[in-house]
Amino acid sequence: MQCRDRQPAPTLEPAGPGRGEGIGATGLGGSAVAGHDSDQIETMEPVKDRIIKVTFNADVHASLHWNFRPQQTEIYVVPGETALAFYKAKNSTDKPVIGISTYNVVPFEAGQYFNKIQCFCFEEQRLNPQEEVDMPVFFFIDPEFAEDPRMANVDLITLSYTFFEAKEGHILPLPGYQ
Amino acid sequence: GRAEGWAGSRSIRSVLAGSGLTRRSAPPPGSAADPGREPRAGTMSTAMNFGSKSFTPRPPDKGAFPLDHLGECKGFKEKFMKCLRENSFENALCRQESKEYLECRMERQLMAKEPLEKLGFKDLIDEKSEAKLKTL
Predict the structure, then answer these.
(1) What is the tens place of the pLDDT at every residue in B32-82?
(2) How far is residue A41's CA from residue A25's CA, in Å, rounded to a whole number?
(3) B28, B30, B33, B38: CA torsion to nearest 10
(4) Residues 69-98, chain A: which have Cβ within 8 Å of B?
(5) Which residue of chain A has the CA closest to B84?
(6) Which family does it belong to (chain B) (predicted)?
(7) What is this model's ipTM?
(8) A15 at the B interface (CB within 8 A)?
């Protein structure tokens, strides 16, 4: 099940009643379909002797008045084991605001092994005035990380999310955002 | 026109240059007018380092979580965070709590229902959890 097939293409229309509101209005609405990645998750085994520290950064674009931060500074994971982490976002303005986020992983070479099963990124997220929400990231590091000699000395991966405001007329170079 | 995803760093540069999204008076880092400048923290180029080897983000496999506007699963989140704090932030020791958080979401249509083994919890599955999921 791939993101591209399932979610509606985000639009640049101004926020209005009924759009982006409510539970389930964005993201998944239907049932899950087993795919290649689900099979991998089901069969992968944790590589228990490769402990990796994952640290979390949060950033907002200058014009987005949200308080956005990770709820943990770090988490220790091993390749092949799914992990959960949380960010938190608050719309500190008196108007609804729609944000959209992207992420970055360093070191660059480790990014290919960083698999996000589900998160809050690449899709518009609307927060009402003064609303605060938890934003989970559910991920795993591919077990093949442990077999890549280039990764032998990598024991720290940093995940950074950046939120932008999704406004009409603005173009955001995000994958799949049209 | 709208940017077509990640197709070509040049088109993204021109998007950034013309977007007006950066407030600084200097040219946006990584733009055509400023190709070699180091990106500054807090600007859009945090995630996009043009002109150098850079990381390309991918959308999440199963899409985005709907927001839990009503905080229905907040209690499970708190339980998970407490577990992390009590266990030196070791994920392996808090997998039961993370499973319960995701089960909460699935029970409230805040996440597509999935068999737990497809979320990496095959070792934590018991008959009770499976039976619960089947009734959702």
Answers:
(1) 444 444 444 444 444 454 545 566 778 788 878 889 999 999 999 999 999
(2) 27
(3) 90
(4) 71-72, 74-78, 81-84, 86
(5) A75
(6) Belongs to the COX19 family.
(7) 0.76
(8) no
The CA distance from A124 to B2, in Å, is 16
Cβ atoms of residues B66 and B72 within 8 Å? no
Q: Give helix B95-107 / helix B74-86 axis angle, nearest 10°.
A: 170
Contacts of A163 in chain B (CB under 8 A): none
Rounded CA-CA distance A37/A82 in Å is 12
> Over the stretch A46-61, which tens digit does the pLDDT of each residue have?
999 999 999 999 999 9
What are the pLDDT digits (tens) for A93-145? Answer: 999 999 999 999 999 999 999 999 988 888 888 999 999 999 999 999 999 99
To the nearest whole Å, the CA of B12 is away from the closest chain A CA by 6
Best of A1, A4, A6, A42 to mutate (most B CBs within 10 Å, chain B): A42
CA B135 – CA B108 distance, rounded (Å): 13
Distance from CA of B24 to the nearest CA of A (A): 10
From chain B, pick out residues whose CB is under 8 angstroms from the CB of A25. 66
Residue A71, pLDDT > 70, answer: yes
The torsion angle over the Cα atoms of residues A124, A128, A130 and A136, rounded to 10 degrees, is -40
pTM: 0.69
CB < 8 Å to B41, chain A: 59
Dump the DSSP string for A39-102: HHHHH----TT--EEEEEEEEE-TT--EEEEES-SEEEE-TTS-EEEEEEEEE-SSS-EEEEEE
